[in-house]
Amino acid sequence: MNFKHLKTFIEVAQCKSFSTAAARLHTVQSAISRHINALEEDLEVTLLLRNTRTVELTEAGENFLLHAQAIVKHCRDAKEDAKLIQSGHKGLLRIGYLSSACAHFLPDMLRQFSKQHENVKVKIIEMTVAEQLQALSENAIDIGFSRPIPDAYKPLLEEKRVAYDPIQVVVSDKHELHTLSEISPDMAGKYPLILFSRAHATNQFDNIMALFHERNLSVNVVSEPHSMQALLTEVASSNCVALAPSCIQNLQTNGCKFIPLNPGMNVELCMHWSTQASATTNAWLTWYKENEDIFRL
């Protein structure tokens, strides 16, 4: 069945005139006749009753008109969808994120993106640094909000710094250090230390340990919890000291006191994506570039 013949039939059925249909389709009347004849021969059905003055649909023609209109609409929608998907304005965008680092900006960012890309479904997945690296390398997510990537991943992933987050000392509100306005690495290193799991944030762990090693300080890391909320719970219930990004203050911090580290150090929050970016990823990156100043952190 020829798609062009269907469109010709619909025009004739609506106009009830071969000559008018020819004018609307910018062709000659003989071409209209050939299309209709070919369609009826293909279907082995009479669709139109015509004479020199009138054109009327047969009962079969009336029924077929409904199907023909549905087919043409479906094809038109399919074409539009294909264009939207290729341009990244329709599809799925999967975003991995660190909840503690993103809680203060990501909801509004996603709302604004969705206003302009209503046909893109956004799926967000809370993930650790290590989980995001694996998901990005396996094409399981499109965008990641995480810490700087290790060198081994740099040929595979693009990276853009989004924000700096100062490392702070976290102690129980009953700890003997809780009244201080700042704490040095030398002072923090005298207490049992809690750091977020190295397996889930290698660079962050190693950079904090380097802070002590540069000062020839030997520290006792007694715990490496796999979630920041667990880290806070351990701190609140012990005499230990933790060093963690200040963003974890967005979590449940009852019983904890955050104190600036002096000299200070920062960890970066970065946005990552594959070098083989999907169409929806490119749409996100274009939108982010246009709105970066609004969400500058």
TrEMBL record:
Pfam families: HTH_1, LysR_substrate
Coiled-coil blocks: none
Domain of life: Bacteria
GO cellular component: protein-DNA complex
Single GO molecular function: DNA binding
Keywords: DNA-binding, Transcription, Transcription regulation
Residue ranges constituting the HTH lysR-type domain according to the UniProt record: 1-58
Family (UniProt): Belongs to the LysR transcriptional regulatory family.
Annotated protein name in UniProt: HTH lysR-type domain-containing protein
Species of origin: Alteromonas macleodii
